[in-house]
Amino acid sequence: MDYTHRFIPAPQSPPARVLLLLHGTGGNEDDMIPLGRDLDPAAALLSPRGNVLENGMPRFFRRLAEGVFDEEDVIRRAHELADFVTAAAAQYQFDPQRVTAVGYSNGANVAAAVLLLRPGVLSRAVLFRAMVPLVPPSPPDLAGTRVLISSGKYDPIVPLENAGRLATMLRQSGADVTARVEDAGHELTHGDTAAAKNWLRESQGDARTPNPV
Ligand code: MLT
To answer: Does the C-beta of 186 come closer than 6 Å to ligand 1?
Structure first.
């Protein structure tokens, strides 16, 4: 498998749910573990470290400047990450249909790229401070996919308008999108995590074991 990563099994095997945790710029495979545990104590956690280095800081794809992405690399890395999820499902013996991505900032952007380029790999995604990673060559079919986009009203890195375009793009592809705005900047707040917990519980659908709060 092509990523340095951590996998933490669920208390119950096989896991009812798996959270794919995707850190922001400068993070690593450890950063999102406490958040994942808090969001869903019954889930298995799969947490890769981004394969691209920017001045020593791990990321999930290259950028040319802040908010300006190297589109070729976005495409390559989105496929790499999608393949990693499939390989991890085989290795750790979980159902790939049960994977929910939880991404922050650059991690949210790569999750959005996987949604747009590899529909079917992620059935649900929580995107904190996400923006449009690229415009796909053809619209994907995202019917049955659920997405929460949680944006910061005063985010200096992700303009609200850009997060809104991502929501529209995903909705036009058939995804069920909940978009919310937090009274915050780029950093995560309690409001973000509380909203994500509720959304995860409500969007479980046919899934599985109750999620203790
Ligand atoms: C990105 O590069 O993906 C976004 O600008 C967010 C960030 O990582 O700062």
So the answer is: no
